[in-house]
Amino acid sequence: MKKVPYRLYLTEDQMPKVWYNLRADMPEQPDPLLNPATGKPATLEELEQVFCTELAKQELDGKTRYFEIPEPVQEIYKQYRPSPLIRAYNLEKALDTPAKIYYKFEGNNTCGSHKVNSAVAQAYYAKQQGLKGLTTETGAGQWGSALSEACAYFGLPLTVYMVKVSYEQKPYRKAVMQTFGAEVIPSPSNTTNAGRAILEKDPTTGGSLGCAISEAVEKAVSTPGYRYVLGSVLNQVLLHQSIIGQEARIAMDLLDEYPDVVIGCAGGGSNLGGLIGPYMRDKLTGKANPRIVAVEPASCPSLTRGKYAYDYCDTGRITPLARMYTLGCGFIPSANHAGGLRYHGMSPILSKLYHDGYMEAVSVEQTKVFEAATMFARLETILPAPESAHAIRAAIDEALRCKESGEKKTILFGLTGTGFFDMAAYTRFNEGNMQDYIPSDEELQRSFDTLPEVPGLKD
Ligand SMILES: *Cc1c(COP(=O)(O)O)cnc(C)c1O
User: Fold this and answer.
1) Which of 160, 230, 296, 446 is the most exposed place for a label (fewest CB within 10 A)?
2) In sequence order, what are the residues at sequence separation of 6 or more whose Cβ sits closer than 8 angstroms to the Cβ of residue 442?
3) At what angle do helices 270-284 and 348-355 cross, to 10 degrees?
4) Is 373 within 8 Å of 419 (Cβ atoms)?
């Protein structure tokens, strides 16, 4: 048997110089974003009020297969990329599986996750446009720290609305953002109409991601020279994250390996959408037929139990409508430790691929995820983020099925980041105090009832 290295790093020369736009190879396009007021597809003119112009163009472009990665972005990528493709020899041995397990590790940077891949691109285009600053929201703090780092590279002011419970519970994430020079405001705040309205109703609320989005968008559109940026869900973010899958593909090709199964965790869908690119392309064009699996928390099961419908991207109901698998924009997930996977919807690209049968989805319970995370940490020398550990769980389950059946499958999964800011969750697991939560059908129905009526659109 061929022995491959533990970690394969591409050289700088081997790194991709383009982003891959999955939409260009889809037989049917995802449904367009709609303006909620008119029910008509959102136009470039509308989107560029909120987003940087170049990013709004990328959002609407389903045709261009490859976008050149701007030189300055390539140069920053080289400061923390390529990310390694790792063979999980120790995990394979411990599982006693005939399967080969590979993972692409995106946690080797200060923010500790893949999110910086899109943050750098978005900050670059904002700088190019001569903008005065950016706003965004952050839940657990990963996106906020990634964008703070990216804005620091380009000397661009940034205001981050951070969900108040996280602001209080994750002071170190806040400190990272402030160190990179960002202004961090706990949301809801009295700096916006949206925030003030929520505070008036409930002064003690801990806030929500949807509320923080509403505040960040309001701040961007009401401040001259400012725009809003988002860290997942949107087509442009999947485009930037395609660097992950392209690097993985080049490295796997060098090893003469092809995955039978590609697995990734899915919150808004950006890392998974990026990882699967070249393999989904083979599938869409009939060249190969790897299985593609999205893994989500049982507590926030948008693909496995959601509806494929037009919905707002935020709880505040101010964003355009996206057709996606959603639990309803009114869905408030239970306190689940994988903060990055607590989102009511899913990328419209992935939603369409799932709807059309090109992708599978599974949901996993939190304690099972932490069992997998702990096993992985002890064997592979990486302490995974709880979000990433969802993919580990599914990869382990797949490898155990191979043990049963004797199949020698090749598994590739995305390890999106490290969990050093999630030690409270690990502590809870270690002390046996972690609970699983699965929403009831009635509960989901209540949030489906919050789905918007779209003018002129029938199901
Ligand atoms: C944000 C985050 C995710 C989920 O986001 P996607 O857009 O679905 O990729 C997964 N893992 C980590 C470490 C994250 O920070």
Assistant:
1) 446
2) none
3) 40
4) yes
Q: Show the ligand 1 pocket: residues with CB < 6 angstroms.
A: 113, 115, 142, 232, 265-271, 340-341, 385, 387-388, 416-417
119 C-alpha to center of ligand 1: Å? 13
In angstroms, the CA 316 to CA 84 distance is: 39
Among 270, 275, 349, say which to mutate for ligand 1: greatest number of ligand atoms within 8 Å of CB.
270
The verdict on pTM exceeding 0.90 is: yes
Strand order in the sheet with 158-163: 183-187, 158-163, 133-138, 226-228
Residue type, 269: G
pLDDT tens figures, 49-106: 999 999 999 999 999 999 999 999 999 999 999 999 999 999 999 999 999 999 999 9
- Mean of pLDDT values over 292-316: 94
Q: How far is the CA of 44 from the centre of ligand 1 (A)?
A: 27
Question: Any residues with CB less than 8 A from the CB of 404 and at least 6 apart, and which?
Answer: none
| Mean pLDDT confidence for 40-50 | 95
Using one digit for the tens of pLDDT, what is the confidence trace for 424-451?
999 999 999 999 999 999 999 999 998 9
Q: Ligand 1 atom 2: the closest Cα is on which residue?
A: 340
Q: How many CA atoms lie within 13 A of 345 on its CB side?
A: 28
Task: Return the structure tokens found at 57.
Answer: 């163009």
Torsion sign, CA atoms 346, 190, 42, 158: negative
63: left (phi over 0), alpha (psi -120 to 50) or beta: alpha
Q: How far is the CA of 200 from the centre of ligand 1 (A)?
A: 32
Q: Under DSSP, is residue 207 helix (H, G, I), strand (E, B) or coil? A: coil
Place of tokens 């990310």: 83
**Domain annotation for the chain: domains and CATH numbers:** 7-14+70-112+235-448 (3.40.50.1100)
Nearest CA, atom 13, ligand 1: 417
For the residues 235-254, what does the mean pLDDT come to? Answer: 98
pLDDT in tens, 389-400: 999 999 999 999
Closest CA to 243 of 3, 8, 14: 14
